[in-house]
Specification:
Shape: globular
Mean pLDDT: 81
Structural class: mainly beta
Strand content: over 45%
Radius of gyration: 14 Å
Number of strands: 9
Helix content: under 10%
Order of helices and strands: HEEEEEEEEE
Largest sheet: 9 strands, mixed
Length: 153
Amino acid sequence: MRRLITALLLLIPFAACDLPTTSQQRTGKLTGTLNGQPWAGTANAAVYRDTLYINSGQHVTGSAEQLIGIAVVPNGQGGYSVVPTSERPGSSHYWELVGGDVITYSAQVTQGTITFTEYGATRTRGSLQLTFSGPRGVWQFSGQFDAPREDVD
């Protein structure tokens, strides 16, 4: 199960463009600040079994990208922890990629909450407050998201 979740978190940002088309806008956005620097990325949300995965990517320079991936089991509007648990270890991360597939840096969420102001069948909206910990130290992210939601099998 741990490998399945890890694989999904790594693949959903790249596979999101292959999700079934809906009448909704397919790409959402995540905006905020990462360590005080502006963040503006595209965002998608996918439900696999009972877990909602929200993934966002921001192009930095050349072929470099920054990604934020969150996994949470929501049951509607409200606030939820996104800290990894024994059932979902390592489920929320920050990554830096080069060339679309080479991970050059990874940090795990050590504290975090997601608050849904809208949690519908086709759309999710809300806010994120995250603390990442990795080899470069502790990073803070604060932002708002508005993302289309898809159910995947």
